Predict the structure of DHC_N2 domain-containing protein.
Amino acid sequence: MAWSAQPHYNRKPGDIAIHLDIIDAKPLHPEQLGSRQYFLVSLVEKFAALLQKSDLLRLRRYFCKRGLLLRTTIEGFTDDCLCILCPMDLSGLTQLRSDALSGQLERELVNCFVNPVSLKKLLLKELNMKVRYWTGELDCVEQEWKDGRMPWQFDMSSDEKCCRMLRLARQFQLSRLQHPTAGSLPRLRQLESHFESNLTGLINYAKLLVGGGRLAPLESLAEFRQLRTGRPELARCPDARYADEYLDALSQVGMATDALESGALEPLRQLRVGGETPVQVERRSEIDNLMSEIREVLADSNPLSRMRHEALYRRISTSERALLGGLLSVLPCAVQMLADLDEALDAYFTAGGVHFRPADLGVAFD
């Protein structure tokens, strides 16, 4: 996948260019074309235009699902069919080098851009693409990091891609997380309030489920689900619906968490390193940590012994705390963490140089 000649493009410090070269292709309608040379030159132009219309977030999700470019941003594409990448740090560069040398990056780049959809748009039967990069450029970026030239500082307000990513993240936060719609914080707070008002019913059902002689606390959500499966006769218990509602509420928190990561956090992860202020860097680390903690809390395997919501603990007896305190703490803890994450996002945008008014984002509050 490597090549020996240095690429020519408007390079910024930290950039790495991946060449996506068309080697050969078979058109759908060869009788409508002129010379072979003209066909290939024209195809390169069409392919470059297609690449430049790519949704960078969708591309990032594609590669991240395959364990690639986890610490590398996709900066965009050039008229010469170059895919410009920028590692976020030295560990990202090391991983990128490893993926390139193993051939995995080349395989997935080909799979990503040579597919039935692109063939249809380019009016092709077949497309043979070669992926190349300049090995010296990887070494150059490594030296830039070691010499302190990276991260290269720049103003995100003058960078079109960064402004677009910031806009997407802020728009999602205001329209989907803060606005009272399905999966928003106000709706999740309503679920939490409903849980609190029916706490006694849920506790009564859980006590029936675990049995009167049990003293050991529930270990995990997985154990709670298994106990319910093992005692189907209790499904007819009047209080069983509160367990259904509680688990459904946790599911809704999980879906809201997935949506938040996709809609707000992934755009922030596509920001080129060096554009954020020191406060934003600190806040983004806090945001990522909160997201990881929320996922841990919601995981079926999460040890419930680590869960404790102080306000809830004050409402239940000592014996109920020992047996069910961890289980009952999951929902209020997860909702509070989402609220903390929302506050961290507000602080992140306040600390930056790119600001959006709700009206500019098409967000209207009642």
About this structure: The two ends are 55 Å apart (CA to CA). The chain has two domains: 2-152, 160-361. The CA atoms of residues 222 and 300 lie 5 Å apart.
